[in-house]
Amino acid sequence: MKTIGLIGGMSWESSAEYYRLLNELVRRRLGGLHSAKCLLHSLDFAEIEELQVAGEWQRAGEILADAARGLQAAGADLLLICTNTMHKVAGQVEAAVSVPLLHLADATADAVRAEGIGRVGLLGTAFTMEQAFYRDRLAGHGLDVLTPDGEGRALVHRVIYEELCLGVVREESRAAYQDVIGKLVAAGAEGVVLGCTEIELLIRDEDSPVPLFPTTRLHAEAAVDAALR
């Protein structure tokens, strides 16, 4: 079994989900007392969030790249960035190491295409929904990507940072997200990508009339596939 290196802490709520999922998936595959071989470098999200807001992505990328080098030196055979938004600096991370980085959007797009779906709605932080780095990666797999309107994007972003990253799950926020999903479906979305790892703490399959693609789980599944291959 290969060792999975995790660049996490952004937020730690979703990193905890990664750790749980990786171990559950390995146990399901191998049985018995098996668990995932993994290393975690958990960053202070407050520092990263300040750089996001300031648009200092180069500096943020340097921090993640340094974490990646440390994980490789500690024995990681492959790497995951445990957040959708910070895949904006995936190129910097890849350039810093010689072990493979499994890109979250690639794993997600593969799952969407496997379901025969070509048009998806995308929920995530404002950075993920509004900037090209993530939408273009999905589009590179032949997907048509829809995002909420301005009001919907602001709502989705606010709930992520002010609630979910703090471990707060509110029923009124679930209802608001369902409304946003409904509008995406009305616009032609055949499925919805939960393009922020924290959203999976709030939205479940029964909250959507179309298939959901939970990126944390899909990323973890791809990592276990690679680790056991």
TrEMBL record:
InterPro entries found in the cross-reference section: Asp/Glu/hydantoin_racemase (IPR015942), Asp/Glu_race (IPR001920), Asp_race (IPR004380)
Keyword annotations from UniProtKB, A to Z: Isomerase
Record SUPFAM superfamilies: Aspartate/glutamate racemase (SSF53681)
Membership in a protein family: Belongs to the aspartate/glutamate racemases family.
Protein name: Aspartate/glutamate racemase family protein
Species this chain originates from: Streptomyces maoxianensis
